[in-house]
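Hey,
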Amino acid sequence: MKWKKNELEQYINAKEYVDTIIIPLLPFQLSDDSNMGKDAFQREVLETFTNELEMELTGRVIRIPAYNYLKTADKESEIARLKSWTDDIGNQPFHHVFFTTFDSAWKKVEHALPGTLLWMPGITTGDIDSKEMQSIIRSQVEQVGELIRTYWAE
């Protein structure tokens, strides 16, 4: 389910079945002209990926709005903010929290995250609408979907 009125109404009526939340972690940095295009492209790819992942796992997953942060921000401060998000999420019957990102800086602090980090190597260029890119995204969705299912089996 996505963060849309009609889908959230469905969630409210089916809470006992939806036990997993996906939070995309999306950096941006307007002061860095040299990486703006790459960052915007990665944002598009991650949004497409998480939307596809949500569709792959429909019925047990809700994808909430992306968590946006400055690329140069202190990760400890960002972890504190993320903990406030997950504290609020904890008021619902979610058992699994997954963070998706291309930003490898999260790997260094993943032990402190209030959930499971799904870091993927970044795709830095390409055409989001090309068949090749769609195939790459689809392959990643299938692999990550299988990984998430292993958490459900525990």
